[in-house]
Design goal:
The complex is a heterodimer of chains A (398) and B (255). Chain A has 398 residues and is mainly α. Chain A has 13 helices and seven strands. In chain A, the strands form three sheets. In chain A, strands 1-2-7 form a three-stranded antiparallel β-sheet. A two-stranded antiparallel sheet of chain A has the order 3-4. Chain A has a two-stranded antiparallel sheet with strand order 5-6. In chain A, helix 8 crosses helix 10. Chain A is globular. Chain B has 255 residues and is α/β, with parallel strands linked by helices. Chain B contains ten helices and ten strands. The chains are: A mainly alpha (398), B alpha/beta (255). The complex binds adenosine-5'-triphosphate and magnesium ion.
Chain lengths: 398, 255
Amino acid sequence: MAVSSAGSGGRRGSSMRLSLNDPTFRAIFWQIAVIGGFVLIVWWLISNTLHNLEVRAIATGWNFLSREAGFAIGESIIPFEPENTYSRALLVGILNTLRVSIIGIVLATILGTFVGIGRLSKNWLVSRICSVYVEFMRNLPLLVQLFFWWAMFQDAFPGPRQALQPVPGVFFSNRGIKIPIPAEHWVHGWMAAACIVGIVAGVFVRRWARARQATTGQQFPVFWASVGLALGLPFVVWLFGGAPVAMDWPALRGFNFQGGLTLTPEYAALLVGLVTYTGGFIAEIVRAGILAVPHGQTEAAAALGLRKGPMLQLVILPQALRVIIPPMTSQFLNLTKNSSLAVAIGYPDLVSIANTTLNQTGQAIEGIAVIMGAYLTVSLSISVFMNWYNKRIAFKER
Amino acid sequence: MSAVKAAQTTEAPMIELKKLNKWYGEFHVLKNIDFECRKGQKIVVCGPSGSGKSTMIRCINRLEEHQTGDLIVDGIELTNDIKNIEAIRREVGMVFQHFNLFPHLTVLENLTLAPIWVRKVPKKEAEETAMHFLKRVRIPEQANKYPGQLSGGQQQRVAIARSLCMKPKIMLFDEPTSALDPEMVKEVLDTMIELAREGMTMICVTHEMGFAKAVADKVVFMDKGEIVEANEPEPFFSNPQNERTKLFLSQILNH
Ligand SMILES: Nc1ncnc2c1ncn2[C@@H]1O[C@H](COP(=O)(O)OP(=O)(O)OP(=O)(O)O)[C@@H](O)[C@H]1O
Ligand SMILES: [Mg+2]
């Protein structure tokens, strides 16, 4: 006892020796060495670049952002004309990237979840189809798949005059997919507001139902009540607004369609490509996550009398999610970054527009900086959110 | 066998298996099982590995499905009707070899989950019941820990308390001590003996013959999917009738 405590005390108490054999000194030495090396490399890169730019007399700085862009952009969710500035063009690019990424992440998650559960199905045909799907998606390069979808949307569909019309008012042509939307009306803004109010009210209903269950044991169908609020309130507002039913129908004018909502072939190809590809990976993650929950958990829950729904919600999913979330985060990041392949099929995403910008202005460093900054911001936001969520549900053990 | 029958009252059995058969594909796991358990009875089921003990008791709460024969629990016939299955699962508690506690929930949450969601008990009341049973299995101080932070013996006692919180009429135990280190077996057996003394109806698959001698009203020996012999513990151990029973007993009592 005395010997051992003297031994450990002696080790802890001894001062650091200036030798690489001393663990503390060694740790500090290597940290300083690594940081020093890094600083040197960065300094060399920057000074070298600045020197070269100076020699070739290339302008640096961000002044180009406020100059006129002078090029048109195929599609945009905010108004854009060639007279607008480069900064607005880049904003259009960022919004286009976000548009395909966010919708892509949501759809890929839904598709992947269904396919992943499908692979576990007892139905032979269902599980076979899901397996084949996953293998196809995982084993073909994404770029090839994007070309395939683009060719599909571009060449497999007829011109606008012979457009396919699967449902009256919906047109498939090589100019994209046209869908009728409700004609502009002042009540729509209020409906959107009502929907947000409904969602917020749903949160409160959830709290209220929790509290009531804690005191009285009575349960409340929170999910359906929330859905009802989020859809019902806008509906009531719509009725009060005079229930406008006018639609904006796509119609053939000359060589192309006017009106309605357009999904361009480029956007459709990119979205479908990213969703089906990433969905294949997500399916595997979901399948692994569910399989990672031991069968004993299902049995214990069943033996206690829990029904399928609460069992999934309270026992299986919380445990599966812990396995699913970290690799799922990678897939979300991959999808976002892979959206830059848009440049290959002509969808004006951030990379494509920044590329045009740096070709026209010659300011490559700034252009690349914008791209990296934007992707880093988006990726880090996804990471931070997913890590926060992962922490929130992490196992507390030992 | 006749002595047991004489002691029985005329009231209907809590659990009744009549000509129960089950197959896994070609493999006949349960062969014409006739079995009954009356209110308050403690029945110990033993037999060699693979003889179908787990399968039989798992049929009782429909963790396994039987193919032919009748199974009646507390007057409810077990059919494919979800309502019947749920009704039976509310009355029957089960303790597993590997505890199967929910690792993402605290001990207290493990105990209150089913009362709140199945029996619709207010949370406060469920927590009071949970603490009551945690005291009975002697680990109230572990209420806010997670299962991963407990020893095997403590986890199994939590699992017993979790079942008891649903106020079951019948408790099924499937080798509750065989995953435990020897020094933890006693604390779990003590809990079970206490439960037996309080009058719980129990069916227990175990090789703990000390437990069988202490509390069992009847010992059932299974082999190759059949009930080979069933008797009160004293004659069962001192004077087994069937050759297979004798062989089995000599094997487990001799080490
Ligand atoms: N899901 C299954 N599919 C096919 N065979 C099975 C399945 N589950 C169990 N069996 C077989 O059924 C037989 C009985 O199994 P059971 O688990 O009931 O035995 P047991 O008496 O509980 O044995 P042990 O003492 O090892 O727990 C075994 O031969 C086993 O291999
Ligand atoms: Mg078994």
